[in-house]
Write a structure and sequence with these properties.
By secondary structure, this protein is α+β, with helices and mostly antiparallel strands. It contains 8 helices and 28 strands.
Length: about 625
């Protein structure tokens, strides 16, 4: 593999616990740096072949470096680690929610600083092994001098059995690539696109300046205030009970003089608006104007993220006071969420779910609930039943066969940038302002035939920043972001969600580890964010952020709104301002007004249709480059 080395130095000391059964201490070595060698910037195929959506690579526990690590794997073991051949490779789940990397091993739990390599896993996780898949699992990255926990396979004393997932799919793994390694890089997850399958890409730092990334449709979402990775400080432990027991040579305690050899802040916490009603901007060619709706062809069904009905919606970007009636939950709900890529779907904590969704008195997703028939319902979520089970990396299972977890489908999840000050608009208010700015962008593009910032026409009364800054922010929505022209309100497009009791050890620990630096957590965002998107966990930016782009902007499952900032030339097309505009308006701007910068805001299918029509007419292709 190419020898591109990256050395990570010490940063702000911190402590976070991966699980009660993991003693979070790591042996100090002369080296205080993780040395990373690998193919930075090259997409690597994630593990595939089974029913689980969790992002996984594979690794060999015994071969780094040396001849034993050369070539592919003799086999990839997808059963319990204790039943695997000694020379087999294991699946390795990538989990931004686990602060410490953990690998399976024999003997007692031990904290080490050592070396391991990760390999691609395309087709390697199928129950019946696919011929050639193991041979193709070639080492792509080496993490040397890396602190991690070596944990034995499941025993009577270990409550985590090396399974991850939920009741629908809970595959075995042999390791967890956690935040103490991920935070040294920018990590990109790319959902299946064509025949490429799911991919992961590691970067020393994510390339590109903000304006260029916005022009590519990437919405930058800085973390919740103060915009830093979160986690307990190492001194919080060293001060208890007497402040003296901080010697890393004894297992289970810490050396305050060498904190960089062990743990650092890794938690990514974002502001979210949960269950917001479907929302899109639609274009009326007759009046040459735009309005907010739940989707194309459905102008009368819009409700804002804060609960303003379409009939009461005013023009401009000012927020409107909403007097919500008792029991009205048909709007977005403000939440604080942790990005945890090693979990399926969305996880909500029970006390938070009850607060948001009216004590969980929700209609069923099928049958008498009416949702399966496509009729409009005023609910942000529906109940699938009580069949849930959650196996989070490093934690005891949540839910049992006798007491299964409640499963929901939540209408949508919107993420917005964190506040830069201690008070301000709520997450749902920030989303509403951004959608109103999108409406103004659309009206200007329709009127002036140039996609650009909404200038002074969209400045909120509470905005003391620059004109048009309502559109200078970003947002991203997944789930049923809007109702596509050929679809309907459909819970099958909503986000699978499990409700975990607030007294489960996982909930208690992550809330403790992020408080009081962040708002109390309401849940964990797993693969719900990785479906139909390109997502970058950018740990390397001075203000760490999550970056989101949509693979198919027209299917209604994803809406990414990058910052729409004007350029020096006021008449120039600003590609960032094209995203979120109606498809029919974009096609007209590209075909009739040469706004070629908007091509990437169209879906691949629409680009094909537009190019084919122009080719038949004997004209030059307006969008010759497909995809992002």
């Amino acid at each position: 593999m190419p020898r591109a080395a990256f050395t990570s130095g010490p940063r702000r000391p911190s402590l976070t616990l991966a699980a009660p059964l993991l003693v979070a201490a790591l042996t100090a070595c002369p080296q205080d740096e993780i040395v990373i060698v690998g193919e930075f910037g090259r997409p690597l195929a994630l593990g595939s072949g089974d029913a689980s959506p969790l992002p996984r690579l594979v690794y060999r526990p015994d071969g780094c470096p040396g001849e034993a690590a050369a070539g592919g794997c003799s086999s990839v073991c997808t059963t319990a680690p204790e039943s695997c051949p000694p020379d087999a490779c294991f699946p390795l789940v990538i989990d931004s929610g686990s602060p410490i990397t953990t690998l399976v091993g024999e003997g007692e739990p031990v904290a080490v600083r050592s070396c391991f390599e990760v390999r691609t896993g395309e087709d390697a996780l199928a129950e019946a092994p696919i011929e050639g898949a193991a041979d193709d699992a070639i080492a792509r990255f080496r993490f040397d001098s890396t602190p991690f926990i070596r944990l034995p396979w499941a025993t009577d004393d270990v409550s985590w059995g090396w399974q991850v997932g939920d009741a629908s799919a809970a595959p075995f793994v042999g390791g967890v690539l956690g935040g103490n390694v991920l935070r040294q890089m920018a990590v990109r997850f790319t959902d299946a696109r064509g025949s490429d399958g799911p991919q992961i890409t590691f970067y020393r730092e994510f390339p590109g300046v903000e304006s260029v990334l916005a022009d590519q449709g990437i919405a930058a979402l800085p973390l919740q205030f103060p915009g830093l990775l979160l986690g307990k400080l190492i001194d919080d432990v060293c001060q208890q009970p007497d402040g003296e027991d901080c010697d890393l040579t004894s297992f289970g305690v810490f050396d305050r003089n060498r904190p960089e050899s062990a743990l650092q802040s890794t938690r990514m916490v974002l502001d979210a608006c949960l269950g917001t009603p479907p929302a899109a901007v639609v274009y009326n060619a007759g009046s040459n104007s735009c309005e907010l709706a739940s989707g194309p062809g459905k102008p009368g069904s819009y409700r804002s993220p804060t609960g303003v009905a379409r009939a009461d919606l005013r023009s401009g970007c000012d927020l409107q006071d909403v007097a919500a009636s008792s029991g009205d939950i048909d709007h977005g709900h403000d939440a604080s969420v942790l990005i945890a890529t090693g979990l399926p779907g969305l996880v909500l904590f029970e006390d938070s779910a009850q607060r948001m969704f009216g004590g969980l008195d929700l209609p069923p997703c099928v049958g008498d609930g009416g949702l399966s028939s496509g009729s409009k319902r005023d609910t942000p979520a529906c109940i699938m039943g009580r069949t849930g089970l959650l196996r989070a990396p490093g934690w005891p299972p949540a839910g049992t066969a006798e007491q299964p977890l409640l499963e929901l489908r939540v209408r949508s999840l919107a993420l917005v940038p964190g506040l830069t000050q201690t008070t301000g608009q709520t997450a749902c208010q920030r989303l509403e302002v951004r959608l109103r700015a999108l409406r103004s962008q659309c009206n200007i593009a329709a009127r002036e035939k140039v996609p650009r910032s909404a200038a002074n026409g969209c400045r909120a009364a509470t905005d003391r920043l620059t004109p048009s800054s309502a559109g200078f922010t970003s947002a991203a929505v997944v789930g049923q972001a809007f109702v596509a022209s050929d679809s309907r309100v459909d819970p099958s497009r909503w986000i699978p969600t499990v409700i975990v009791p607030a007294d489960h050890p996982l909930v208690s620990a992550v809330r403790r580890d992020t408080s009081p630096e962040a708002l109390q957590l309401d849940g964990l965002v797993g693969t719900a964010l990785l479906s139909g998107t390109d997502v970058v966990l950018d740990y390397t930016d001075p203000t760490p952020s999550v970056r989101v782009a949509c693979n198919d902007p027209d299917d209604g499952s994803c809406l990414a709104l990058p910052a729409c900032v004007p350029r020096e030339d006021p008449r120039a097309v600003v590609p960032a301002c094209c995203y979120g505009l109606p498809e029919d308006l974009l096609v007209s701007l590209i075909r009739d007004h040469s706004a070629y910068g908007c091509c990437e805001a169209l879906s691949p299918a629409t680009i094909d249709e537009l190019n084919n029509a122009e080719a038949i007419a004997g004209r030059e292709l307006p969008c010759p480059v497909r995809g992002r």
